[in-house]
Structure formats: C-alpha cells, structure tokens
Design goal:
67 residues, alpha+beta, two-stranded antiparallel sheet, 1 helix, 4 strands, 15% strand, elongated
Length: 67
Amino acid sequence: MNVTKARCYIHDGAEAVARCSKCGKDICAKCAVDYHGQTICTACGMPLIGFFNNMHGDPKTIFEKNK
C-alpha cells in the first residue's frame, strides 16, 4: 500500500502537520498559527491578526511557541 503524505498548500515541498480550521487546507509547521486556540494558516491569519510585515515572526507559529 502506497500512502502519500499531505503537503503544505503554501510550501508544497513541506510536509503538512495540520489543517487550517478556517479554510481547511493542509499546512506545514511554518504556516500553522494559533489564533485563540484554533490552528489557522498564515493566509487566513493575515486579515485576522494583521501580521503583514513578518508572516512567520509574531505571533509565533504553534510549533515554535515552546522554543
């Protein structure tokens, strides 16, 4: 049986680790943002959070919070 792993829709070379709770697309660790307890992608987070200058900086992605 050949199982294909999901890929991030933004970074198609990266393995998906979550699914955006707003749009439902697969996202990698760099794109997964915690928004009030929900995992959303950076594209959905832009209008909600307003982090246009540094998409992967602030807020930290849910996988970078504990670093």
